[in-house]
Amino acid sequence: MSGRLFTSLGLFVFSMVLMQCAGATLETKQADPRLAPVQPNYTSQLAQSMRDLDAELVAIRELLEAGEDVAGMRFTEHQFTTLQPTDSSMLVDGFQALSMAFAHQVAEFNAAPDAETYSAVVGGCEACHMRSCPGPLQRIAKRYLSEDE
Question: How far apart are CA 36 and CA 38, in angstroms?
Answer without folding.
Answer: 6
